[in-house]
Amino acid sequence: MRLPKPLTALLLAVSLGVAGPATAWEMRGTKAIVLHGRDGSQVRIGTVTFTPQGARTGVAVKLDTDKFQDFFLSMKEFKCLPTPDEVFCHVPYPYPNPASVTGDDLAWLEHALLFFYKLPSEFGAKLWNGVYYRLTPTDAGLVGRPQAVDLNQIGAPPVDAGIPPYGPAERSEMAPEARWFGTLTIQ
Question: Max Cα separation, the chain?
Answer without folding.
Answer: 69
